[in-house]
Amino acid sequence: MEAHTNFPAPFYRWRPHPWHGLEIGPEPPNRVLAYIEMTPFDYIKYEVDKVTGYLHVDRPQRTSSLPPTLYGFIPRTFCDERVKALSQNAIRGDGDPLDICVVSERPINRSEIFLNAVVVGVIQLLDHDEADDKIIAILENDLVYGHIRDIDELPKVLVERMQHYFKTYKMIPGEKPGIELINVSGPEKAKKIVNAAIQDYEDAFGRT
């Protein structure tokens, strides 16, 4: 008997690489796809392996600090020369996909998921003089935060927690901190950085 199987289109016979195989999002730079590596419940720093695309343990967190939001990256972005040009005093981009923090009212306690997010701002950091920007976004259709379109509309304490986390999560007692906070900006600057990271990706890997 001949078997007939109808696969949906598009159909990924093999798991797509989350950095290179997923879409940027439905309407970049306004609405992007975020691939989540860490949740607010993680004491371990998880990171996608650039070769295999699987999530691996980068390191246990040294301090008791937890990410205040979902944390991951925007697929098909890359932080290189164009991103560096938008960051004060940066000597280079960090060579990674563009980081994103996603605010959600309902707790999400699992990673290796992707979701649509609305870009509302950016926290710009230098990590040992490399541009290490954190795009701030809202889970699309969130019942509490879904109306927000500017980082200034978020609770002030939540933005403070994000700044504190990224300024301290790599801190080692007795050593000089390598993280410097440059500024916190709204959606206009954030979207310029998203576009720059998309262009840096295309320069490095080609248009897909």
Structural summary, described in words:
The protein is of the alpha+beta class and 208 residues long. The chain has a single domain, classed as Inorganic pyrophosphatase (Inorganic Pyrophosphatase, Alpha-Beta Complex). The protein contains three helices and ten strands, in the order ββββαβββββαβα. The strands form two sheets. A five-stranded mixed barrel has the order 1-4-6-9-7. Strands 2-3 form a two-stranded antiparallel sheet. The radius of gyration is 17 Å and the shape is globular.
Descriptive keywords:
single chain, 208 residues, alpha+beta, Inorganic Pyrophosphatase, two-stranded antiparallel sheet, 10 strands
Q: Note the gap between the termini.
A: 40 Å
Bulk shape: globular
CATH superfamily: Inorganic pyrophosphatase
Note the beta-strand portion.
25-35%
Largest sheet, if any? 5 strands, mixed, barrel
**Mean pLDDT over all positions:** 92
What is the CATH T-level topology?
Inorganic Pyrophosphatase
* Domains, number: 1
Given as residue ranges, the uncertain stretches (5+ residues, pLDDT < 50) are: none
Tell me the number of strands. 10
CATH architecture: Alpha-Beta Complex
Question: CATH class, anyone?
Answer: Alpha Beta
Q: Please list the strands of the largest sheet in the order they lie side by side.
A: 1-4-6-9-7
Radius of gyration: 17 Å
Secondary structural class: alpha+beta
Count of helix runs: 3
Order of helices and strands: EEEEHEEEEEHEH
Helix content: 10-25%
